[in-house]
Amino acid sequence: MIGTAEGKTAKTGRGRDLTRKIAETGHVLGKVWALAKPYFLKSEERVLALGLLGVIVGMGFFLVWMSKNLNSWNRDFYTALQEKDAATFWRLLLSFDSLEALFFSWVGLVVVYLVIAVYRFWLTQFLTIRWRRWLTDVYFSDWLRDRTYYRMELTHTGTDNPEQRIEQDVASFTQRTLSLGLGLIMEVATLVTFTVVLWNLSGSVTLPVMGGIEVPAYMFWTAILYAVLGSWLTYRIGRPLVRVNFELERYNADFRYRMVRTRENAESIALYSGEAQERGRLQQAFGRIYDTYWQYMTYYKRLTWLTVFYSQVASIFPVVMQAPRYFSGQIPFGALTQTAGAFAQVQSSLSWFVDNFTILADWKAVVDRLTTFSDAMIEARRQQHEESGIEVAPHPGRELAIRQVNVHLPNGTPLLRDIDLTIEPGDRLVLQGPSGSGKTTLFRVLAGLWPFGSGSVRTPADSHVLFVPQKPYMPIGTLREALLYPRTPGADDDEALRAALTACRLGHLVTRLDDVANWAMSLSPGEQQRLAFARALLLRPDWLFLDEATSALDEATEEAMYRIVVERLPEATIVSIAHRPSVTGFHRGRLVIDKEAGTVTRQPLEPTLGGYA
User: Fold this and answer.
1) Cα(392)–Cα(447) distance, rounded to whole angstroms?
2) Contact partners, residue 195, CB within 8 Å, separation at least 6
């Protein structure tokens, strides 16, 4: 049916309102929750998703417990070395005295830790790809729904490179959200666990102020101060990286897009000898990447000065702080190493922000890009619903009725005025007018694509409609898929496909039905237009709209294409945009656009060309 929506998403409840909720959320954590909640709490995969998440978190807690046991093993092992206790030394490495002794030996602890760590990582990847698949489907379904993708291009609403938002940013968001979230949970568990260990090991210190103030568990408080200071400095130094990461991703995407455009239009560029212009455009696009990357290098260098110094000091700092107690004989060497290990765990947990700041900066930029994309889709649909003054709807009649339609340009400039026409089933009309008079725009109105204007278009219900543009769309895939687009090929189509190709003078392609190619590049413009006519013969529409669909053909081939359409689709209503007499002769009437007045009038045509009109 003319102007109908492309269709609904495959599964109800699959986040149809997800982008609206994201757009209404201000804080970055709120946006993350808006992205995550539908999958984990409302999707058809929620039971599996929550189950996997619970198992992964549980395995993380188990690894923290294993780390505590390894920390205790480390104390006993180095104490045995200090005391030259060979029996304990070898027993700690590997013991078969009991199952418990085997488990708490070095070999047992490492083997169990390794198995849990590997499968926790694998399950995290499994959950990541399933979440990415679901969220990707939500985004591209929302992008395609209600022809939002077309409206965004038509009005230049919103974001650049939507394909990057859907492919790259969704992948980055799901991977990093799970990595950061699960990592934070593990660090909190590690902090709680090793705080107890460090508290018991670090002893107390007396500060020489106010007659002496005793500070219990001074190593614990030292770790907190060390981490807080490092986090604050990291935030202050690295904060500009959020903006730079956002801009760098945008410029990289624009550079890729320009190269794709060059590849897709290779023949046109070559014919124009436009290599110098393309080189200049690509250099300009990469220049933005170059300049932004210099900013990235500058800020990252400043941050690296801090993070490297911070991590190097952290490796020796707890040993230095505990050395007086060790040299005085208050603690053995094993306790010293255990304290250093516990301090490192606590400091690492408290320094999670420091260690992950660059990842967090990039993650926030990803969230912002997904959010702005959601905002753009919401705005495009809002404009479509609020500004769609031309109502296109089906009615029970068999005719196409255009009533009091006024067509405007997006800036509000009038293009066509007071169109009042009725096209009956079986009519064959040619639409003519000077360049820029609005012929193709009128076709867009009939297809329900052009919202700017007023009036109504009533279309025959349950009619199969096919619009054939001057440059027909050629999907990348098999020739069979290109021929039947947008229909899905069936097993019994081959004979009909070969017959249609032969009829449209494409017999040299009949053996290539299963070939996969970029047909827009492989076929000449004339071959593509003939393939579009073969597509029309196969799809057998009730209403066929041809927008200069033979402009790349010579007159003899053009006449042959129209002749075969008229002969094989005798009941079809045909409306063509064309100028040559060889095309005009296949029609019964003419729609003429007066560019100055903006009016459309219908005029009769005399039957010609052997009575085909």
Assistant:
1) 8
2) 220, 346
